[in-house]
Amino acid sequence: MTKLDAWLDQHHAAFTAIRRDIHAHPELGLEEVRTARLVADKLREWGVEVTENVGKTGVVGVIRGKQPGGRAIGLRADMDCLALEETTNLPYSSKNPGRMHACGHDGHTTMLLAAARYLAENRDFAGTVNLIFQPAEEGRGGANAMLADGLFERFPCDAIYGLHNTPGMPVGHFGTTVGPFLAAADSWKVTFRGVGGHGGSQPHRSTDITYAQAHFVLGLQGIVGRNVAPLDTAVISVGYIHGGDVNASNVIPSELVLGGTARTYSQEVRDTVERRIAELAAATAQAWGCQAEASYHRGTSPLINEAEQVAVAVAAATAAAGAENVDGKLRPGTGGEDFAEMMLVRPGAFMRIGNGVNPDGSFTGLHTPLYDFNDAIIPAGVRYWVGLVDQELGQGLRAVAAE
């Protein structure tokens, strides 16, 4: 048993209690007042330099090593919850109606807090560790808020690292890859307008926007199939269609709104998808004698892992879990991650950690009312964070045998 192993055995229960406390008090992005206060208070208690209100509710802790060295790295965890009603009925389930930690940010925050305490107690490394507790990962722009508040000017980082739990991946397993790892997460909206009318007695006097909408939705997949190269990736999905009135089903509506999401890995494909959605909407509307107004909102950028940082991350994960439990060529996904905005300005790597899978292969996915972070993976996450500091800033933090 190493020194770190013994330390984790001693403190695992305490950090499980912290995680469950955060879980019971979820807060939406840029509203993480209680969570940020808890983070800041714990860091100060352990002797970490703390700066609050970075990007409104963000917290940054700074731990300086005892050895000489000018290199600095950033370790990032997210703190916000989702607008979702929890149905787990756990003893520590959400006390805030319509709010739930359904993505595991409570666990991410806890794992980085635990690593912070260990690093603060064991500073035998050269350089600086910046602990970045980010608000508002779930669509409210927390990464850009911290960047606009001078994150890397105030807390310089030569490289940055992120970690996210993954249901369906076994406990103790890690995975990442070089290059595109997660997608740009954009949204689009199209409004069709025409002349409504009586759908039973005089449909010919209307310009039926439901026809236009139907052909537009079918045509969207033609963008993916015929405008995007076969080896590139694009996803276009319709998330809502609103038109007419359920109490007036014999009326052809004069306005119909629909929208959805688009996922891409490259700027070129992203540009193509945005342009073609607008062109398809306009052409379809013209074909059916109505008008269309299209808008496209660019959300988080594609997350691109740098080769140098992936090598460091794989080495850290291997030290934490063994080579047989680390996949350095994990298949990318088309989920979005706000950490990508930080990685546009500093090189970095994003790692997945297994949240567990049932013997029959089933699991509860992220962003669902029954999801819960697996407290059993807290030690593995801490080993990974400490391993990154070992790899980047010097050896000696985890390999020393416990006395």
UniProtKB/TrEMBL annotation:
InterPro entries hit by this protein: Amidohydrolase, Bact_exopeptidase_dim_dom, Peptidase_M20, Peptidase_M20_dimer
CDD domains: M20_Acy1-like
Annotated keywords: Hydrolase
Keyword Transmembrane helix: no
Segments forming domain Peptidase M20 dimerisation: 187-285
Keyword Hydrolase tagged: yes
Bilayer-spanning residue ranges: none
This protein's name: M20 aminoacylase family protein
Lineage: Bacteria, Pseudomonadati, Pseudomonadota, Alphaproteobacteria, Hyphomicrobiales
